[in-house]
Amino acid sequence: MPNDVITAAGAPAPTGPFAPAVLATGTRVLSISGQIADGADGQIIGDDDAGEQARQALRNIDALLVAAGAKRSDVVKVSVFLTDMNDRAAVAAARSEFFGDHKPAATLFAVAGLVTPQLKVEIEATAIF
Known about the structure:
Layout: E1 4-6, E2 21-23, E3 29-35, H1 50-68, E4 75-82, H2 88-99, E5 105-110, E6 121-128
Parallel strand pairs: 4-5
Antiparallel strand pairs: 1-2, 2-3, 3-6, 4-6
Helix pairs in contact: 1-2
């Protein structure tokens, strides 16, 4: 039985051969692909501001959570990819706003670049609900 591919109205479509999110068959484990600062129209939101880019990536994650029937508090793990570690505090603030008192496990990676040169942050998540 195939896994369920999750898409969300208002979230950007994938730009490559991957699903935005996958709900594992027979489980309530949702794996959300790395989300970037694309709006529904595919345009980058946040210009050169890593905090704003993170907020948009998190809005995209939220849309996929809702589409799957999950919520923010179901997220058990996030991975954050940053092109500049000097943006760490701005991205952490965006994550704190998004999750509130909920504290999922997290890993932070410094990367040389992302799919588009203007991007400063990408965030992936796993939820169990």
